[in-house]
Amino acid sequence: MVKLAEWRGKEVFRKYGLPLPRGSVARSPEEAESLVRSGRVPVPCVVKAQVLAGGRGKGGAVKFANSAEEARTAAASILGLDFKGEVVRELLLEEKLAISRELYVAIALDRAARLPILIASADGGVEIESVGDDRIDRQPVHPFPGLTSYERRRAAKALGLSGAPAKALEPLLDGLWKAFMAEDAELVEINPLAVVGDRLVALDAKVIIEDDAAFRHAEYAEIRDDRTPLEEIAREKEIAFVQLDGNIGVIANGAGLTMATLDVLKEFGGHPGVFLDLGGTDDPKKVTEAFLLMAQAKPTAVFLNIFGGVTKCDTVAKGLVEAMSQVPAADRFPLVARIRGNNEKEGIEILRAAGVTSVPSLKESAQAVVAAAGGRI
Ligand code: GDP
Ligand code: MN
Predict the structure, then answer these.
(1) 3-state SS of the chain: helix, strand, coil percent to 5?
(2) Is 104 assigned a catalytic role?
(3) Which of 97, 204, 207 to mutate to test the pocket of ligand 1 (most atoms within 8 A of CB)?
(4) Which of the residue ranges 23-27, 90-94, 304-308 would you say has the lowest mean pLDDT?
(5) Does 70 share its domain with 194?
(6) Which among 94, 183, 186, 189 is annotated as catalytic?
(7) Which pLDDT score, from 0 to 100, does residue 86 have?
């Protein structure tokens, strides 16, 4: 999933002819000031934090300015803020428009319907999750004919538009549809879509590009900066690997068991720091690679919790023993293993030969690894 910052999303929108406010990106208060001074951004203007989390309006990350001086002050107060865990490093400055209404439109991939879906609500400007279901119009759109005039008209009606803005909605939705399809998006969202006189203007842009289409969009490769370097390596090797804040490494298989293992560790006062989902691999080499990656994350202790299905216990044990022989002595860490299921006996035997005991009880194994990691931190 590549989630684009608002300004990048708007660049995508621009490519497909969507109506946008005039604006520009700034990375320092001085730059913000000079954008206004040079007239590249007219005043009054809006100064918006470029972070991926929503709710900036409510969270103080969107400010207004009436002069170059005010733009600099607003920029200085937003840059460097920690907004929902993300430090603000970029701002978007845009002309402030006189809005008469705030609407919501989006095209998303509806995985249940297995179709794109056009979503429209007259209650824009707030998080769509807080809008009543009866106030949201959803229409599946078949990708072969694309967006039809019927769907566009129904959306206009749901948005309560008539006359010139309703007319303006047609090319806007066509552009949005094109953007969704051509960019392989899983979401293109405009919230709010503002009614400004007779015009419609996209005040915000949320664009999420489908990961599986990454190979078709080299242009987004550089934006994948939400991963840590190790997560990036893991992605290339197709290993599900996520780094958190704690100190215990977790290796499990299947998303369900992996998540449950994190919960159990927390329950016993542990602090999971990195987790790795072996998924359904039955290749010991893959297990070795995954384990070596885990070692690079320098966990204090590692909990291996495997339920052998497609991934057999002996496969994991072999891969693990091989990896342990490759980890430099200085980087070794206590390992608690719990392997159950397919080829359990063989797996336990391989581990025992390498000096690792498999603890059958979930409770005992979890407590053992928490203790090995130094208890509660
Ligand atoms: P979000 O809260 O992170 O989704 O950020 P938005 O881009 O949606 O901005 C939040 C709110 O700021 C919008 O809902 C508007 O009410 C307000 N806003 C943004 N741009 C303008 C503008 O040009 N004029 C006016 N009057 N309000 C704006
Ligand atoms: Mn918004």
Answers:
(1) 40, 25, 35
(2) yes
(3) 204
(4) 304-308
(5) no
(6) 189
(7) 80
In angstroms, what is the span from residue 96 Cα to ligand 1's centroid?
A: 9
- CA–centroid distance, residue 186 to ligand 2 (Å): 17
Rounded to whole angstroms, what are the CA distances from 18 to 134, 172, 174, 310, 324? 27, 6, 9, 48, 55
pLDDT digits 0-9 by tens, 178-227: 999 999 999 999 999 999 999 999 999 999 999 888 889 888 877 765 66
Q: Is residue 327 part of a domain?
A: yes
Q: Is residue 1 part of a domain?
A: no
Distances (CA, A) of 226 to 5, 82, 221: 11, 15, 11
In short, whether 99's Cβ falls inside 6 Å of ligand 1 is yes
- Looking at the structure, do residues 67 and 122 belong to the same domain, yes or no? no
* Residue of 99, 121, 199 best suited for mutating to test ligand 1, as the one with most atoms within 8 Å of CB: 99
Give yes or no for a contact between 284 and 326, defined as CB atoms under 8 angstroms apart.
Answer: no
User: Same structural domain for residues 198 and 106?
Assistant: yes
In a domain, 46, yes or no: yes
In a domain, 13, yes or no: no
pTM for this prediction: 0.69
Which domain range does residue 127 map to? 101-219
Please state the domain count of the chain.
3
